[in-house]
Structure formats: structure tokens, C-alpha cells
């Protein structure tokens, strides 16, 4: 867990050699698709065969390391593990109709199935014994692995994959603790380690499977989130309230943004509110969104948010910046129609754009950020694709294409493949390593580029993580 915590932060990247001149001459959409295919080539070469497979149907199973330079450890989860790679592979197979991606996704699914185990009480899990916090979570626990199989089920109409996702859902529900009408798993409330992310998986699983039990479990967990909220009065409104939550693993600090903060919790409650028609969840989501707004830094027509309430540190990535947090406001605008939510989302998007102004001399300020999906350019690209789809404004598509072109230009060639350096942070994420996983590695850069390659499609063909929807 400490290893995962150490990855979360803002990074500066030192880029390597670009892709070949031949790719650089391609028209932009073709160059983007070419980069996805080349990333797939490199990712394929990082696959590690699973040994000791006894079942014939699991022969050929593979898993992936977090980084190419550390191949001996293969973890199962979304963040740093094989489930995130599987999510990319399934999307690449479906969107590009790529047989190689499909075959590699099959082998990865086998790898995950070959390494599953049971808890002491007999429920399905991939997590180690003694993992006290986050074992059922979306990014570092079983919910994320279940979502990878759910994505496989949706894209392939695969009943066996859906059955695995439902087995994960059943395990998560069975492992929950109850307090009256509340369901919880540990002390974590947020999206990466906590109940908010687990809730989002259960909602999507219930939608796909049509099983009410998953929706009921998500609703019960939302009631637990409401009970954990910290309430404070609104300024100038004796009857009003603002809500926020603290991240327990970070010393009960009031994180603001999406990955570990109040914005992510509010997003989960807003999703539950629509699915269950729960007015209390809907009001709590709005009260929490207003607390986030109270923390904002306004500079002209731009808005940014501190990482922790009361601090001055701001970041530009999905984890602790607008590419994550603005999704809450886009969702609330879609749900309520209130213009103020859209105003906040667009103002924070303008702040992101202002952090990477185009250089008249041909440089690009995006080089100050890592390529990663979690905290860098790939996550920004992904967000601006959603922003364009939500608003139809060309400037957001243009910025997404600029971010995509930057990823294409700064990828390192490795044989026929393409890879990106992870970057360095104050938490010492290694710039001498090349990540494989979704959140810090090539699977994330490639998934973001896949979204760019399909940006003009009337219906978004990419099946994403369950915390990315803005409608």
C-alpha cells in the first residue's frame, strides 16, 4: 500500500526519442492510431507467462508488471496491475478490431483467473491476506478487477466474463460490514482506496446484470458515506450546510479533488442519487460540490482547487486537479441543468489550458507534466475528450488533439513499439522506468490516444472506468 501511495503526485518528465519520421508524416488521426498500435506492440512484449497453471483452459495465461524494468512482480489490480492493462486491451480489440489485442486480452483474462484465490471465509479475491484497507476498492482492490471483466463482458457480449464480474460483486457484498441500513468495508471513503469507487463498480454491475442486489448494496454504502460526512454551516445561511470528507490513510486530511477527496465522494453520491431516486444523496452531492467550490482559487476567468483544503498547492492532473474534479460539475450540470456547475467545470478547464500555453518558438509547456493517465497529459487528454463530447465546443477538441500530438511526438521508439517514461516526483517515481499499467504506464497513454482517435464518432465506443462518465 505504501508503494501505491508513493506514486501519487505531480511529476516532471524527461522525454526520449520520438517515433519514426514515417509515422510523423501521417495525417493526425492515422498517426494517433499508429501510436496506439505501437504501444500495443510494446505492451505485448512485457507480458509475463503465468507458471504452474493446472487447468487446460488457462494455458497461455499472462500477467503484466507495473514497469518493464521490474518484471518479476505482477499485481492484479487496476492501479499498477494487470486489470488496468486488460481494460485497455479489450477497448483496443473492440475499437480497432485488432486480433492481436483480442488474443492478448484473452491471455490476460486467463492470467487473472489463474491467480484468483479465496478469502478465509470462502469469497473470491485477488488481494493478499491481511490487506486491511482498500481490498474491495476500485483502483487497488477487487472491484477494479471485477470492472475489467465487466468491460470485457460489455464489449464482447461475453456471458462468462459477466459471470466473473458478478462473482466479484457477490464477494464484495458478502465481505461488507453492516450498521443498520449502512454497508461498509473499512475506513476509506474515497475513489481510489474507498467506498466511493466500490459503489461505482456496483452501480455499473447492477446496470449490466439487471440484479437489484448490487444496486441495493451501492445504496447502502452511500448511506454509510452520508454518515461519515463532516458538516459545516454555509456562510450567511443558518439553515444551509456544506459537506466534506477526510482521507483517513493520509492522516485524516481534507483532500479536495477526485482521487482521494470530497469531489470523488460527491460524484459517487450523485450517481447513486439518480440510480435510486434518493433525494438525500442528491442533496449531499450538491452540498459537497459547494464545499469544493468554497475552496477554489479564482484567477481571472480560471478556477483551480488546492490538493488539501487550506493549502496553496494545486495540480493539473486527474488525481488532484480539474481533469478529475470537473467531472463532478459536468455530471451535476447534466443532472440538474444548473448553469453554475457548468461554469465551474469550464473555468477549471481554462485553468488547465493556461498551464500549458503553446510556445511561439515551437516548444510546448506540456513537457512540464508526466505523460501518465493519473497525474499527467494522458489524463488531461481523456478529460478534454469528455469535455468536447459534453459541450460540443471545438476549442476542447483542439486542446485534446494538441495533448494527443504531444504524446505521439514524445513516445520513445523501442523496436516496432512505443513506450513512455514514468517521470519523477517528490515521491520518487522513477524516470528511468517505463510503466506498463493503466494509471502510470503505456496502457494509459494508449487508452487516451484511443479516445482521441474516436473523438469524432457520434457514440463514444470506449468503455471506460466507472468514475469517468459525465452524463
Biggest sheet, open or closed, and with what strands and sense?
Answer: 2 strands, antiparallel
Hey, roughly how much beta strand do the residues contain?
5-15%
Which outline best applies? Answer: globular
| H/E topology pattern | HEHHEEHHEEHHEEHHEEHHEEHHHHEEEH
- Helix proportion of residues, in percent? 40-55%
- Overall residue-averaged pLDDT value: 91
As laid out across the biggest beta sheet, the strand order is 1-14
Low-pLDDT residue spans: 1-27, 424-428
How would you sum up this structure, described in words?
The protein is mainly alpha-helical and about 475 residues long. Helix 4 runs parallel beside helix 16, helix 6 packs antiparallel against helix 7 and helix 12 packs antiparallel against helix 13. It is globular and about 65 Å long. The strands form seven sheets. It has a two-stranded antiparallel sheet with strand order 1-14.
Q: Topology, pairings included?
A:
Elements: H1 2-5, E1 11-12, H2 21-24, H3 28-45, E2 48-49, E3 62-63, H4 82-96, H5 99-114, E4 117-118, E5 124-125, H6 142-156, H7 159-174, E6 177-179, E7 182-184, H8 195-209, H9 212-228, E8 230-234, E9 237-244, H10 262-276, H11 279-294, E10 297-299, E11 302-304, H12 322-336, H13 339-355, H14 377-391, H15 394-410, E12 412-414, E13 417-419, E14 424-425, H16 442-453
Antiparallel strand pairs: 1-14, 2-3, 4-5, 6-7, 8-9, 10-11, 12-13
Helix pairs in contact: 3-16, 4-5, 4-6, 4-16, 6-7, 6-8, 7-8, 8-9, 8-10, 9-10, 10-11, 10-12, 12-13, 12-14, 14-15, 14-16, 15-16
Q: Features of this protein?
A:
two-stranded antiparallel sheet, single chain, two-stranded antiparallel ribbon, 471 residues, mainly alpha, disordered N terminus
Amino acid at each position: 500500500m505504501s508503494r501505491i501511495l508513493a506514486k501519487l503526485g505531480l511529476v516532471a518528465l524527461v522525454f526520449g526519442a520520438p517515433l519514426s519520421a514515417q509515422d510523423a508524416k501521417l495525417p493526425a488521426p492515422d498517426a494517433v492510431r499508429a501510436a496506439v498500435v505501437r504501444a500495443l506492440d510494446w505492451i505485448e512484449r512485457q507480458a509475463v507467462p503465468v507458471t504452474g497453471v493446472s487447468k487446460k483452459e488457462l494455458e497461455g495465461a499472462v500477467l503484466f508488471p507495473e514497469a518493464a524494468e521490474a518484471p518479476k512482480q505482477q499485481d492484479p489490480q487496476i492501479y499498477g496491475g494487470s486489470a488496468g492493462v486488460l481494460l485497455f486491451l479489450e477497448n483496443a480489440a473492440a475499437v480497432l478490431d485488432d486480433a492481436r489485442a483480442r488474443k492478448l486480452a484473452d491471455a490476460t483474462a486467463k492470467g487473472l483467473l489463474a491467480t484468483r484465490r479465496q478469502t478465509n471465509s470462502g469469497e473470491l479475491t485477488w488481494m493478499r491476506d491481511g490487506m486491511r484497507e482498500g481490498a474491495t476498492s476500485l483502483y487497488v482492490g477487487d472491484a477494479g478487477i471485477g470492472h475489467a471483466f465487466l468491460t470485457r463482458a460489455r464489449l464482447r457480449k461475453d456471458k462468462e466474463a459477466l459471470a466473473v464480474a458478478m462473482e466479484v460483486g457477490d464477494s464484495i457484498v458478502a465481505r461488507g460490514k453492516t450498521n443498520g441500513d449502512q454497508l461498509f468495508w473499512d475506513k476509506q471513503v474515497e475513489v481510489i482506496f474507498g467506498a466511493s469507487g466500490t459503489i461505482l463498480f456496483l452501480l455499473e454491475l447492477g446496470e449490466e446484470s439487471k440484479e437489484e442486489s448490487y444496486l441495493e448494496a451501492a445504496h447502502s454504502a452511500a448511506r454509510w458515506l452520508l454518515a461519515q460526512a463532516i458538516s459545516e454551516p454555509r456562510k450567511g445561511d443558518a439553515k444551509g450546510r456544506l459537506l466534506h470528507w477526510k482521507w483517513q490513510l493520509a492522516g485524516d486530511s481534507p483532500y479536495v479533488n477526485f482521487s482521494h477527496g470530497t469531489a470523488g465522494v460527491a460524484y459517487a453520491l450523485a450517481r447513486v442519487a439518480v440510480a435510486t431516486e434518493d433525494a438525500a444523496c442528491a442533496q449531499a452531492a450538491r452540498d459537497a460540490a459547494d464545499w469544493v467550490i468554497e475552496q477554489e482559487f479564482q484567477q481571472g476567468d480560471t478556477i483551480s482547487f488546492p490538493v488539501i483544503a487550506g493549502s496553496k498547492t494545486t495540480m493539473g492532473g486527474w488525481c488532484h486537479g480539474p481533469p478529475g474534479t470537473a467531472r463532478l460539475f459536468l455530471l451535476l450540470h447534466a443532472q440538474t441543468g444548473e448553469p453554475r456547475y457548468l461554469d465551474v467545470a469550464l473555468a477549471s478547464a481554462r485553468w488547465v489550458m493556461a498551464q500549458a500555453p503553446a510556445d511561439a518558438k515551437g516548444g510546448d509547456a506540456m513537457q512540464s507534466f508526466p505523460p501518465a493517465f493519473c497525474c499527467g497529459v494522458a489524463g488531461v487528454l481523456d478529460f478534454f475528450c469528455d469535455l468536447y463530447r459534453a459541450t460540443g465546443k471545438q476549442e476542447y477538441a483542439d486542446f485534446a488533439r494538441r495533448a494527443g500530438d504531444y504524446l505521439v511526438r514524445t513516445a520513445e521508439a523501442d523496436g516496432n513499439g512505443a513506450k513512455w517514461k514514468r517521470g519523477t516526483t517528490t515521491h520518487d517515481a522513477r524516470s528511468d522506468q517505463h510503466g506498463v499499467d493503466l494509471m502510470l504506464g503505456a496502457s494509459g497513454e494508449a487508452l487516451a490516444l484511443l479516445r482521441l482517435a474516436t473523438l469524432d464518432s457520434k457514440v463514444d465506443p470506449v468503455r471506460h472506468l466507472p468514475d469517468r462518465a459525465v452524463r
